[in-house]
């Protein structure tokens, strides 16, 4: 397994001065020197000319992976003009932070419901040797493994929970789900020298074929919850009204009249429409 190590290089600016001086010296000897020295100077001029090809540029947040006949010699990360063995091959690897946005994947959640899900993965290369030598194409590897991790996550958790279900859900626990997604993607991409900075769901919805049915289910659940809250509040209001009437001696109510009052108040408080008052001009009996 390859791990990144420093690729020793020289300043390209200093080497320009040295190579230029050597090149001019060899040309001067070729023109003015004896025949024997001219042959040696010509050979030296060719070598100096080849050395010019050892110059290369390293941009900020970039690494150059150096190889000599297939052997890894190190990675140069120092930005600017650098010089190294002209026989080295120099492969550029970006160290910048990058985004990968998956397409909308159609999968089944833990309850078997078809859903659509997508995610955004924020990543960067931290080990250039692993990125270049351990996988064939690290950018393609990131995209495939990220989508595989997203599929596995979607099948491990339900879209939303039922009343008695307290499991993590894709819809209700976005922060926890995002952290689990980041961890799973990191486990898959670690061997490629990639560090996952962030992972977030960018799209989450039921599949179109069941979306309408699930929407009706959500609406029904919301209506039931609202009704339950209304009834609880109405019962408390009726109880307080009866107790206050009795405490202050406004009116004496027997059980039958209390039952009638409770019925009327609940109808008024829990009804969907405004109550229509009915005036009673006589006795209840």
From TrEMBL:
Assigned GO CC terms: membrane
Keyword Transmembrane: yes
Domain of life, source organism: Bacteria
Location of the protein in the cell: Membrane
Membrane-crossing segments per the record: 12-33, 39-58
Domain (Band) ranges: 53-218
A Pfam family the protein falls into: Band_7
Cross-referenced InterPro entries: Band_7, Band_7/SPFH_dom_sf
Coiled coil: none
Membrane-protein topology: Single-pass membrane protein
Keywords annotated in UniProt: Membrane, Transmembrane, Transmembrane helix
PANTHER family: BAND 7 DOMAIN-CONTAINING PROTEIN, MEMBRANE PROTEIN-RELATED
Name of the molecule in the record: Band 7 domain-containing protein
């Amino acid at each position: 397994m390859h791990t990144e190590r420093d690729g020793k290089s020289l300043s390209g600016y200093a080497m320009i001065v040295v190579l230029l001086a050597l090149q001019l010296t060899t040309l001067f000897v070729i023109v003015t020197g004896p025949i024997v020295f001219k042959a040696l100077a010509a050979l030296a001029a060719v070598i100096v000319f080849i050395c010019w090809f050892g110059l290369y540029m390293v941009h900020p947040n970039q690494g150059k992976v150096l190889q000599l006949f297939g052997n890894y010699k190190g990675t140069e990360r120092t930005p600017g003009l650098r010089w190294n063995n002209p026989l080295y091959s120099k492969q550029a690897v970006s160290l910048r932070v990058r985004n990968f946005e998956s397409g909308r994947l159609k999968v089944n959640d833990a309850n078997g419901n078809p859903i659509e899900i997508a995610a955004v993965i924020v990543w960067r290369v931290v080990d250039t040797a692993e990125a270049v030598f351990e996988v064939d194409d690290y950018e393609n590897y990131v995209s495939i493994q990220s989508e595989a991790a997203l599929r596995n996550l979607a099948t491990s958790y339900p879209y939303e929970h039922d009343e008695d279900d307290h499991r993590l859900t894709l819809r209700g626990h976005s922060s926890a789900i995002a952290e689990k997604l980041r961890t799973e993607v990191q486990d898959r991409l670690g061997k490629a020298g990639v560090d996952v900075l962030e992972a977030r769901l960018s799209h989450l919805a039921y599949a179109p074929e069941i979306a309408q049915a699930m929407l009706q289910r959500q609406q029904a659940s919301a209506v039931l919850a609202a009704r339950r809250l209304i009834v609880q509040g109405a019962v408390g209001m009726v109880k307080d009204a009866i107790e206050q009437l009795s405490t202050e001696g406004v009116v004496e109510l027997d059980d039958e009249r209390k039952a009638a009052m409770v019925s009327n108040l609940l109808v008024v408080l829990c009804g969907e429409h405004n109550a229509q008052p009915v005036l009673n001009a006589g006795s209840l009996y």
